[in-house]
Amino acid sequence: MPTTRSSSTRRPRAKRSSREAPPPSVGFVSLGCPKALVDSERIVTQLRAEGYLIAPNYGDSDLVIVNTCGFIDDAVAESLDAIGEALAENGKVIVTGCLGARSGADGANLVTQVHPKVLAVTGPHATEEVMAHVHAHLPKPHDPFTDLVPDAGIKLTPRHYAYLKISEGCNHRCSFCIIPSMRGDLVSRPIGDVVREAGTLLAGGVKELLVISQDTSAYGVDQKYRTGFVDGRPVRTRMLELVRELGALAATHDAWVRLHYVYPYPHVDEVVALMGQDGVLPYLDVPFQHAHPRILKLMKRPASGEKNIERIRAWRAAVPDITVRSTFIAGFPGETEAEFDYLLDFLREAELDRVGCFAYSPVEGAGANQLPGTLPDEVREERRARFMQLQAGISARRLRRFVGREMRVLVDGVEQQDTGAVALGRTAMDAPEIDGVVRFTGSGRLPIGGFVRVRITGSDEHDLQGEMIE
Ligand code: SF4
Question: Rounded to two decimals, what is the model's pTM?
Fold first, then answer.
């Protein structure tokens, strides 16, 4: 091999019985600059951690990884030669690195144009993607500990829905919140990793992906929306592209994607345009928290200058059945009765579909604790109750329009009532745990974790009732 920086990492093999197969071996060719070398080290480390051996030559390798350079013409030629040599000597080749991200004159991937027989191609900084290709072509050695764990990992949710975390931390400094001081600034996960995790979950039977973060609209800001790789394709690290990828993937598994914690930045309008297509649900969880400009300013809320009523109208014009969910805080320090009334007026006008409201509660270490005008507990609680009472009427009115319609329902389980068992499920309008449910009857087989069609026969403040269509 031209450059096998890691071949000397082979350790003496542990004694094994004659019937036990030797661990799979991977050959590694590392070309390019120190950044590429670090990528190589990461991949080799991961291979060793998973029990693969690093082979010193093509003959002892079950598969070869070539980490390429695409900087200047000579480097491109050297990389293409190395791939050709590995293909000729071994035949099973995965290509990673800078050359993997380059396109030829016609826009197609340069490596696959020259060497169509390579097993897979990724760009640089793609350890997880490379490992996924290795797993696909050279299964992992058996590990008695980790092999007890399913590919999708251990989930604490029911088998048919899963939370998909796309980033950690937050760049905002809302005065009532201490998350940034605990978890730091926004760090977005690589788009390839997120989409791959989504694929594993969907392949494991998940029918609803709940996208979560502290600020989903900000996905990729910290990465300057850099181009990542999804299955070797260049894709920008940005909310719009991520939702498009997840929606397309979900559609191939007949599954849903639901977006949470979306701040109403202007680019969200482009995401709304994807809703109702592929697997992207027409559902937006937008935590407004308040409506009065002075309180929003005191809260230091992101996107507080947006004209939210106009935005909601525009979203509904674009996607008539969109569900807009939000959360609010009543009784923030210094909130006057007039400012609270302003919030109630906003609620009347916005006619949100799903709403949660909390009475303000100080969190130790939060900046809002220093604000003047702390309201007594009873006032905060009374405002919360008034807010929820108003919303109950709005919600009941909005739900009534579904009576008589036929809706797609994801079946969560069965509830025992005095009159017997009733099936429980959720429509596109309902996130698990926080929104409403559909209670329905029917005599057919009930596919828990699957979809059924339900004719809606009744509604109340939060939930729907119906009959399964056989
Ligand atoms: S409440 Fe504000 S600061 Fe806290 S996580 Fe959400 S956006 Fe970030």
Answer: 0.74
